[in-house]
Amino acid sequence: MNTQSQSTINSIDLQFDRKHLWHPYTSMANALPAYGVVAAEGVELQLQDGSKLIDGTSSWWACVHGYSHPKIVAAMQQQTAKLSHVMFGGITHRPAVELARLLVELTSPKLTKVFLADSGSIAVEVAMKMALQYWQGKANTDKQKILTIKNGYHGDTFAAMSVCDPEGGMHTMFGELVTKQLFAPAPQSRFDGEFDPEELNEIASIFEDNHQQIAALLVEPIMQGAGGMRFYHSDYLAALRKLCDKYNVLLILDEIATGFGRTGKLFAYEHSQIEADILCLGKALTGGYISLAATMCSDEVAQGVSDSPAGVFMHGPTFMGNPLACAAAIASIELIKENQWQTQVSAIETQLKTELADAINYEHVNDVRVLGAVGVLEMSSTLNTAELQQEFVNLGVWIRPFSNLIYIMPPYCVTAEQLSKLTHAMKTVAANINPSTNDIAFISHG
Predict the structure, then answer these.
(1) Catalytic machinery residues
(2) 58, 130, 260, 392 from 412: Cα distances, Å
(3) Band of the pLDDT at 194, cuts 50, 70, 90?
(4) What EC number(s) has UniProt assigned to this enzyme (predicted)?
(5) Residue 335's CB: how many other CB atoms inside 10 A?
(6) 0.70 exceeded by the pTM?
(7) What is the pLDDT of residue 11?
């Protein structure tokens, strides 16, 4: 194939994209720029002009093994040739069975039942439904509220929106359509600091006053992701487990962002040495190669759901247990089981702490946070995403800031040299924030 033909194939009509395609959290009237990607390998994204960007986001925290990994690609190709999809109602297949076996093996002993869904948001919806049906099976119809903590994020569908932050979150404009849930203050004790037991007082009072209506407590363990990239103390999470036990409330852990090694433990709940009653997984479940999520629960929860008036669990997505997605997940988990991630994430954490530390001295940097393969610069005000995005592209990296955060969550296979390029770009942009504007904007130096 000649160069011109290849160029035509790789061409992306960005004007058509801007006019017709709706991107996440973007206005169609004033759309943010979109950069055309034609290929990806390892930790690099290739743009249609031939330039390459080191990916600092793992495509929204999912591509933990990097792009075009031969083991995952081969697993998907082989599965596509045999069975790409079949309904899961009344039919099963080897990829679903083997994936469930792996998940039961990897997670805590209490989690024995696996529901395979489409996406992280749906995994949360499924978890909330499980909790409500469980209490129906216990002949307790009063328990219909979900308790959670502020600064949380659990997805974009309506039940998931109801447990996202009610004040500063993304979903505050849908009014009465969103179910009103119970919210406790966000934890303040830092993961790397001392734990203050007094911050449990308010959530303990909520349990005391409302436990007869609370079906479950739903939280992101250790790291609150899209709600601010906040890392809270492991003792706080351990105390939540005790409160749930004391007041007979189920504990749902949303590990969609933190699962499969991101925080330095295979699952973030391991920092607190606790078990969930219901666990949500997604994103890195397939290595980020195709959408798939899982909601796991205990025998006790499954029995309660089965004893509910419906007699069955009331959920069944069309693409539930998709064989192609399950095959990708099996390959990704087999890579996880090789345990290279432990060395990789530890090295990333050490390097991030070393290379980002001095950014705390920058004028508009409020905080520097690192945990596992996550590095965060919290700025003093909201960032101009479009301008900063362009500056990062100019620096040869893909880093997508949001709100007042410049952060990276790179693939685990990132090299020390690539990671240094990412941290250098973060600090270069943070050091050149324009102090004369309310919305912080980057000063372009050409």
Answers:
(1) 25, 153, 254, 283
(2) 9, 33, 11, 20
(3) very high
(4) 2.6.1.62
(5) 20
(6) yes
(7) 87
**Residues of the binding site:** 60, 120-121, 153, 254, 283, 316-318, 400
Cα-based distances in Å from 40 to 36, 53, 58? 12, 9, 11
Per-residue pLDDT of 146-160, as tens digits, reads 999 999 999 999 999
- Of residues 263, 319, 264, 336, the one with CA closest to residue 69: 336
- Radius of gyration of the chain from Cα atoms? 22
Confidence grade of residue 176 (pLDDT, cut at 50, 70, 90): confident
- Which residues contribute to the annotated binding site for substrate? 60, 153, 283, 316, 400
User: What is the bridge-based pairing of β-strands 374-379 and 365-371?
Assistant: antiparallel
- Give CA 360 to chain center in angstroms: 26
Report how far residue 109's alpha carbon sits from residue 111's, in angstroms, rounded to the nearest whole number: 6
Q: Which residue has the higher pLDDT, 218 or 9?
A: 218
Give Cβ neighbours of residue 120 (< 8 Å, ≥ 6 apart): 155, 256, 280, 282, 283, 293
According to DSSP, the residues that pair with 191 across neighbouring strands are: none
CA dist list (Å): 213 to 146, 240, 249: 8, 17, 9
- Joined together, the tokens standing for residue 45 give 């994204």
Q: How far apart are CA 27 and CA 23, in angstroms?
A: 8
The whole-angstrom distance between residue 145's C-alpha and the CA centroid of its chain comes to 24
Q: Is 338 exposed, middle or buried (0-12, 13-18, 19+ CB in 10 A)?
A: exposed
Max intra-chain CA distance, the chain = 72
Determine the Cα–Cα distance for residues 218 and 146; give it in Å rounded to an integer: 7
The backbone torsions φ and ψ at residue 296, rounded to the nearest 5 degrees and listed phi first, read: -110, 150
Q: Is the pLDDT of residue 96 over 50?
A: yes
